[in-house]
Amino acid sequence: MAAQQLDLREVPPPERHPKIFEAFEELDSGEALTLVNDHEPTPLYHQLSAEVPAFDAEGYQVDEVGPNEYVATLPKK
After folding, report:
1. Pairing between strand 3-7 and 32-37?
2. Where are the alpha helices (DSSP H) in 1-77?
3. Cβ distance 55 to 77 under 8 Å?
4. Domains in the chain: how many in total?
5. Domain, as residue range, for 15
6. pLDDT bucket at 77, cuts 50 / 70 / 90
């Protein structure tokens, strides 16, 4: 599975979701978007699940890798 990575820790919060949705849209089926974030992206997970049919919610994964550092994998069907 190919992946693209976005580090969102320095991106202003209002710009994060649009940037994520744009990057996810550019993925091919079977690829994944990896996010590095300063918080667990639970609201993003729910938004993708509700609004993006190509989001593979079953393949979603998030890990806390350090203080205020989370890595989430958003796979595309």
Report:
1. parallel
2. 13-26, 42-51
3. yes
4. 1
5. 3-75
6. very high
How confident is residue 54, by pLDDT bands cut at 50, 70 and 90? very high
Cα four-point dihedral sign 46, 74, 55, 59: negative
Instruction: Examine the pLDDT at 1 and tell me if it is beyond 90.
Output: no
Q: Cα(36)–Cα(63) distance, rounded to whole angstroms?
A: 10
68 phi, psi to nearest 5 deg:
55, 35
CATH code for the domain in which residue 53 is found? 3.30.110
- Quickly tell me which residue has 């994998």 as its tokens: 73
> What are the tens digits of pLDDT across the range 59-69?
999 999 999 99
Helix (H) or strand (E) holding 75: strand 69-75
* Residue 20: CB atoms within 10 Å: 22
